[in-house]
């Protein structure tokens, strides 16, 4: 019995500090995964805001008193704190051109964009775009 005790004691001495090394190797990976999940959540939330902003802007373009300024303001006000812009060069109206106000039955396809910059993985920055199509009543 004394021999078993001494053998276990010697084996324990060789493994001393292994928990610290394992912790030092695993924790950075877990932290990177955690920040990746946070950035992905921010991306999904921003994508949802962008979709809603495009719909609000397209609806605002169909209102009787619409101007490009009121459409830009509606898009900007729909997502406070997020710099969403209307991409007028890629937005279309049928019948063309995209002048305001629009008549009933006209189609407005409004494109909005946002430059997304992740907090942790800054090399993954992207320009997100979203289109919304509305037929004016």
Your description of this structure?
With 137 residues, the chain is of the alpha+beta class. The chain has one domain (2-135). Helix content is 50%, strand content 18%. It has three helices and four strands; from the N terminus they run H-H-H-E-E-E-E. It has helices spanning 2-14, 18-62, 68-78; strands at 85-86, 92-94, 107-116, 126-135. Strands 1, 2, 3 and 4 form a four-stranded antiparallel beta sheet that branches. It is rod-shaped and about 90 Å long. It starts with a helix and ends with a strand. The relative contact order is 0.16. The model has no long low-confidence stretch (mean pLDDT 88).
What's the layout of helices and strands?
Elements: H1 2-14, H2 18-62, H3 68-78, E1 85-86, E2 92-94, E3 107-116, E4 126-135
Helix pairs in contact: 2-3
The gist of it:
This protein is 50% helix and 18% strand.
Question: What would the keywords be for this entry?
Answer:
4-stranded antiparallel beta sheet; alpha+beta; 137 residues
SS element count, helices: 3
Q: Name the structural class.
A: alpha+beta
- Largest sheet properties: 4 strands, antiparallel
Rg calc: 28 Å
What is the 3D shape?
rod-shaped
Beta-strand fraction estimate: 15-25%
What is the string of helix and strand elements?
HHHEEEE
Q: What's the number of structural domains?
A: 1
Task: Kindly report the average pLDDT value.
Answer: 88
Question: What's the total count of β strands?
Answer: 4
- List the uncertain runs: none
Distance between the termini: 91 Å
Helix content: 40-55%
Please state the oligomeric state of the protein chains shown. Answer: single chain
